[in-house]
Amino acid sequence: MQFEYSEPQTDLERALGGYFSINLFGKIIEGDDIKFRQFLERSAPPPRISVYLNSSGGDVEAAMGIGRLIRDASFSTSVGTYTLDHQEVGEYLIPRKFTPGKCLSAATLIFLGGRLRYFDPESEFGVHQFSFKNPSPHNLEKSQRLSAAIARYIEDMDIPAAFLELSAMASGHDLQLVTGDQLRALKVVTDGETPAAWGVEVHQDAMWVRGQRDSLFGHGKVMVIYAKSDGFSFAALVEAMGHERELMTFGLVEIIANGEDVRIDVTDRCLRSPTGIYIMFMIKLSDEEAKVLTDATSIGIRVRASEDAEIFLGIAAMSTEGGGSMLKGLYHIGSK
Questions:
Q1: For 63, phi and psi rounded to 5 degrees?
Q2: Cβ–Cβ contacts within 10 Å for residue 309, how many?
Q3: Residue 119 maps to which CATH number?
Q4: Disulfide engineering: 315 pairs with which of 156, 199, 217, 220, CB 3.0-4.6 Å?
């Protein structure tokens, strides 16, 4: 497999940010995951850039290794190629050209590595069951181990098991093409935002319900917490994406719920602190506020310069679907 890295070409592109991308194309061979790691070390691309994939497949283990590297770097994935358009050279911006491509067989595992995943309707996405051309006892044993590794990889990438079931329905010799609508239904294609994922964590003296989601604007987590000593509180982790100063200093912080119907001004009681790539917001809640949030259909946090500012940072209210019963259970425990 070949790798190409493109970065800003003009002073204006560098000033605007973005204009970074990686193209992966060709057959995947054993060891390509090691080559890709070395490629990333040499090129040192920033996080949150797009990886464009055009491949008919190849080595499964190398594909999963590349997918994990893509996920660790917070890259997104798309099927096709994205190249400089030398026929349309500008003085300040150099146009890019997208060409639809193919993502087949093992290449689909690379695609799953993207935190956000895009699919053009003119591209092709094809799956089939993994198998050996010349079965033997050794190959059958290897196939079983590899099948388990694929299942674990798909789970680690937060892809529903239904995707693996779809692949298993096609024999190793037959490729099944999958449409963009099917891929979106399977949550394989996310476009610019992943569904919110909810979970519960319980410790000796505290428990919390956490929702998290990836989007074009970064990764975000919201948590409603109950502790025996402190009662209810709310926490949010907002990926800074270069806006550390604004997130730490903007003058208005609001918890939002039910879209934006509910706004709770928490500016005067909000603690803010940098935590790795995130800015953390921590707010003590009253029992009434906790009841509002645990009954809400969506929860987020909004950070603005003032009440009149139309642009905001933070986390747009994320749906509590899948976490509603957890939130209500948390309030029930804390309000006893």
A1: -60, -45
A2: 13
A3: 3.90.226.10
A4: 220
Evaluate whether 110 touches 63 at the Cβ level (below 8 Å).
yes
Q: Which backbone phi and psi does 138 adopt, to 5 degrees?
A: -65, -45
What one-character DSSP code corresponds to residue 205?
S
Do both 209 and 320 map to the same domain? Answer: yes
CB 254 within 8 A of CB 234: no
Pairing verdict, β 76-79 and 117-118: parallel
* Cα–Cα distance, 301 to 92 (Å, whole number): 37
Of 185, 218, 236, at which residue does a domain stop? 185
R_g over Cα of the chain: 23
Tens digit of pLDDT for each residue in 76-116? 999 999 998 877 666 788 889 999 999 999 999 999 999 99
Percent of the chain exceeding pLDDT 70 equals 94
Strand partners, 76: 50
CATH code at position 256: 2.60.40.1880
163 and 19, same structural domain?
Answer: yes
> Cα separation of 154 and 108, whole Å?
11
